[in-house]
Amino acid sequence: MKRLVILGAGYGGLALAQKLVSLSKGHNSWKVTLVDHRDYHLIQVRIHEVAANSIPAAQIKIPLSELLQGHKVESIQAKVIKIDPVGRTVETTSGSISYDRLVVALGSVTDFHNIPGLQEHAFAMKTLDEAILYRKAVVEAFRKATAAGAEPLRKNDPRLTFTIIGGGLTGTELAGEMVDFCNDLCKKFPTARNAYRIVLAELTPHLLPELGAENGDYAMNDLRRKNVAILTNSGIDQVLPGSVHLINGKTIKSNIICWTGGVKAPPLVKESGFETTRDGRIEVNHNLRSKQFESVYAIGDNAFIHDGRTGKPVPQTGQYAELQAAYLAKCFAHEQPGVTPEPYTPFSMGISISLGRGEALSLSGPLKLTGMPGRVVKDLSYTKHELGVRNVLPEVRLG
Prior knowledge:
By secondary structure, this protein is α/β, with parallel strands linked by helices. Helices cover 29% and strands 25% of the residues. It is built from ten helices and 27 strands. The strands form nine sheets. A five-stranded parallel beta sheet has the order 5-2-1-9-21, with helices on one face. The protein has a five-stranded parallel beta sheet with strand order 11-18-12-13-14. A three-stranded antiparallel beta sheet has the order 6-7-8. α1 runs parallel beside α9.
């Protein structure tokens, strides 16, 4: 029996393991091994909600033992140290694992872009631990600023200024949720009501640059209506304790600083001998196979996939990773010697961006929903993912 090793139990890796085992029932042609340093699947797209105290941390952790129950999948909790694509082995903290095929689905890590002081003085928003630390820091900032004997608060007080750097999906969603979080805290600390400020700084001329100017401007206007200070065309020169220094010479005095401006593939991908893009991704062909090593595939944040229809790379979102996993599962399950599978064709079922606990911007083809209707669609997407990984939903036919 051939051994397929999947590195990472995120959106792509978990879906691949589950779907391949389901499709292979009755002719078990693959021994599937899933490796992840965590013992749970993280609903990554809800990290900002934990950070802004909208949901508890436990809500976005689903134990792998629960999700793999009834599946013939070997689950190994270990950290990947190195991949040997020539010798077809993976070195982990639990030992060496050999493979016939390897799928790299390790997700991404924060890319601080070598901006001076950024990594040292700003919170990242990539892991659950980082979200929890950020949430605690916000609460502590309110507590200290309103404590007996503290200097009187003033409008836009630096002690209660929360700066988010990066106006893409995560940064925009975090800004919207922070409005609700700060309003909640003002009920407990009423003297802070007119003192706190949320700042969202973006390098490009518009928020949500991946979704076009019209949608970015809608999000910007909505957040400004809630008194979020939006700074576009605002590159970061350096970050110091308590201040963000912009390339244009302006300075934002800020107690809590959060960076949501970029991710990259884990360094071990390049260190393992793969030729990678600037952000560390493996360039794959139309079957999601490495152009360099025939036994290696990559999906999600680890794959650089060129979309011939748009001329752009396929977006790095959980939805695309899940659909890439479904494609590979079908290829592996129905593999025949000498037969090349149909090429992977990227497509999107739409996207929803939270603009606070009670509203969202939801886009699907020509359909655009805002406010509460948009939020309903957003919440349905969360529910669909959770039910899907729990195998409650029926399989989606992909042709």
